[in-house]
Amino acid sequence: MNYLEEQEKLHKPTVKELNILLADYHLYYQKLRNFHWNILGENFFDLHLKFEELYTDAREKIDEIAERILTLNFHPMSKYSHYLEISNITEEKSLIDDKKMVNCLIEDHGKLLEQMKKVVKKADDSGDEGTIDLIGAYIRYLEKASWMLNAWTKRGKERLNSSILKE
Q1: Distances (CA, A) of 164 to 73, 77, 156, 161
Q2: Sign of the alpha-carbon torsion through 80, 7, 73, 141
Q3: Which CATH entry fits the domain spanning 3-152: 3.40.50.300, 1.10.10.410, 1.20.1260.10, 1.25.40.10?
Q4: pTM given for the model
Q5: Which of 42, 16, 9, 34 is nearest to 152 (CA)?
Q6: Where in the chain are the domains?
Q7: pLDDT tens per residue, the chain (167 residues)?
Q8: Which of 24, 29, 18, 16 lies closest to 83, judged by CA?
Q9: CA dihedral angle for residue 60, residue 118, residue 134, residue 1, rounded to 10 degrees
C-alpha cells in the first residue's frame, strides 16, 4: 500500500462526516435564501440583511468544505437528493413569521455545531490538522452568529446569566 492509499484510508471517516456537513450547509443555505426572500413585517430590513450575510457565508463554506474533501483525495457528494437523505437540517415552510425564522436558524446552528464536533473528532483521530483548523473557525463564527440571533429574540428586560457577577 502506498502513502496516498494509506492517507485515504485514514481520512475516510473524516470525509464521511464532512459530506454530512456539506449536506447540512446546502440545506441551511437554501433555508436562509427562503427566509431572505419571504421575510415580512417590522423586522424586514434587519433580518433581510442578516439572512443575506448568513447565506453569503454559508455559500463560501459550502465551497470550502467541498474543496477540503477534494484535498483529502475524495470526491464530495454533489446530488441534492443525497443531501436530503443524510442532512441533519430539514426544510422549512416559506410563510412563517420572523421570530419562528430566527428560532429555526438557532436550532439549525445547534445541529451544524454538533456535526462540526463530529468532524473535528474524526479529524483529530486521524491527525488531520487542516480540517481541524478549518472547522474550528466555522465553530467560532457560528457560535457568534447564534449569540446574536438569540439576543435578537430577547425582550428588553431579559438578561444573560449573571450568576458569576458580584452585585
Answers
A1: 48, 46, 21, 8
A2: positive
A3: 1.20.1260.10
A4: 0.93
A5: 42
A6: 3-152
A7: 566 677 888 999 999 999 999 999 999 999 999 999 999 999 999 999 999 999 999 999 999 999 999 999 999 999 999 999 999 999 999 999 999 999 999 999 999 999 999 999 999 999 999 999 999 999 999 999 999 999 999 977 777 787 888 76
A8: 24
A9: -110
Question: Cα–chain-centroid distance for residue 61?
Answer: 8
Helices within 39-128 (DSSP H only): 44-71, 80-86, 98-125
Best CA proximity match to 22, nearest among 146, 144, 115 = 115
CA separation, residue 65 to residues 25, 29, 34, 106 (Å): 9, 14, 22, 21
CA 85 remoteness from chain centre: 17
The helix (run of H) or strand (run of E) holding residue 25 is: helix 3-38
Grid cell, residue 69, equals: 474533501
Q: CA-to-CA distance for 31 and 92, rounded, in angstroms?
A: 7
Written as nine digits, the cell of 126 is 486521524
Contact 139, 61 (CB under 8 A): no
For cell 470525509, what's the residue?
A: 15
